[in-house]
């Protein structure tokens, strides 16, 4: 029998699947995978129930339900004072991951380079490799902020794309004004360079408000933003997000999207269009800030060192004063002996850089967070 030659020989089961499976096996509290465990807004579920009996179960338009596209344009104008054309500059995607995949497949060519800032989400590299392009992984600083000197020294005429993630998963850090100034300078130096801005946690920021690619007019013609209804409204299983890009880039992305999924769940799109009329999106930040503050208060009684959490629903901590184990071994021991599943940060780094940091998801009900903290106090 001929052996199939893998296109992705180094890809194994993701750390998220590994830790979730271990949590199930050892009956541990799962603070590893980034999904909430509390109920949806009852208004959204009511909309969904009502719509289930309506004639909305056939294919949606390829780019998205017209009403939803218009609501996204309104949301973007309200949130960022950016006017976008719902017909030509917005694409509803089957989750942020599909949007990222379609973008890279559409815009990156063989042997071109794509900058990824580590630690990074694991869906960035694969579509680059499938383009026969070159992922260039650059470490963030130890405080998880961009190293602009290193980034500037690495980008060259063959660099097609830089992927930024703000607010940042796994660290919870967000970019400041100077970070965007440095990015704008790079685009002035390299006219071919594009920006893919992963902003799926854009509405979950705290004391320091999120600065978006949408706030930066200099970047609009060279950038693609990625958003996620799944993250914003804690409906991760719906797998629905959207892209915003100028028409000359969006036309190319749509060519891939139409042959990848063609269109996205019709019922979910109509439901979200109705929900956007009544939901108060700015209130989501205060909801998650209460979660963050509550969880940080609980962890204050443990031996962990809490790192800054400026956005997302993740809390990164250092366990350097607890153990000198590598972070993978430490997280596995946490599951087996303590009963709490987390994510080791080194798995987000191409070089395996290990600063003895792990990531907790605090998008859980209070009782779950209390039980987890009680277990973690045993360390």
TrEMBL record:
Coiled coil: none annotated. Residues 28-376 form the Aminotransferase class I/classII large domain. Its cofactor is pyridoxal 5'-phosphate. The keyword Transmembrane helix does not apply. It holds the Pfam family Aminotran_1_2. GO terms for molecular function: kynurenine-oxoglutarate transaminase activity; pyridoxal phosphate binding. It comes from the Bacteria. Keywords: Aminotransferase, Pyridoxal phosphate, Transferase. SUPFAM superfamilies: PLP-dependent transferases. One of its GO terms (cellular component) is cytoplasm. NCBIfam families: PRK09082.1. Belongs to the class-I pyridoxal-phosphate-dependent aminotransferase family. This is Methionine aminotransferase.
């Amino acid at each position: 029998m001929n052996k199939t030659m893998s296109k992705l020989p180094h890809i194994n089961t993701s750390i998220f699947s590994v830790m979730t499976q271990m949590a199930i096996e050892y009956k541990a509290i799962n603070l590893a995978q980034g999904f909430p465990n509390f109920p949806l807004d009852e208004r959204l579920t009511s909309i969904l129930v009502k719509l289930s009996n309506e004639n909305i179960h056939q294919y949606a338009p390829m780019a998205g339900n017209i009403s939803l596209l218009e609501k996204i344009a309104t949301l973007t104008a309200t949130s960022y004072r950016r006017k976008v054309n719902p017909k030509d500059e917005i694409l509803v995607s089957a989750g942020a991951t599909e949007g990222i995949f379609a973008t890279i497949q559409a815009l990156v060519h063989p042997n071109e380079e794509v900058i990824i800032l580590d630690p990074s989400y694991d869906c960035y590299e694969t579509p680059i490799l499938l383009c026969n392009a070159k992922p260039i992984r650059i470490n963030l600083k130890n405080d998880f902020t961009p190293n602009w000197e290193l980034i500037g020294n690495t980008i060259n005429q063959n660099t097609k794309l830089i992927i930024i993630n703000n607010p940042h998963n796994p660290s919870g850090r967000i970019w400041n004004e100077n970070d965007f100034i440095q990015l704008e300078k790079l685009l002035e130096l390299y006219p071919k360079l594009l920006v893919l801005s992963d902003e799926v946690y854009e509405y979950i920021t705290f004391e320091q408000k999120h600065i978006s690619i949408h706030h930066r007019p200099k970047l609009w013609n060279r950038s693609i933003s990625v958003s996620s209804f799944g993250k914003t409204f804690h409906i991760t299983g719906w797998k629905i997000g959207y892209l915003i890009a100028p028409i000359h880039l969006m036309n190319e992305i749509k060519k891939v999207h139409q042959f990848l999924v063609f269109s996205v769940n019709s019922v979910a799109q109509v439901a979200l269009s109705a929900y956007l009329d009544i939901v108060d999106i700015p209130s989501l930040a205060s909801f998650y800030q209460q979660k963050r503050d509550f969880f940080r208060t609980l962890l204050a009684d443990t031996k962990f060192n809490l790192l800054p959490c400026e956005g997302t629903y993740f809390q990164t901590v250092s366990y350097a004063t607890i153990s000198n184990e590598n972070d993978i071994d430490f997280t596995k021991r946490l599951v087996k002996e303590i009963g709490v599943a987390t994510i080791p940060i080194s798995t987000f780094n191409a070089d395996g850089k290990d600063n003895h940091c792990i990531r907790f998801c605090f998008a859980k009900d209070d009782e779950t967070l209390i039980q987890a903290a009680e277990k973690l106090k045993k360390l």
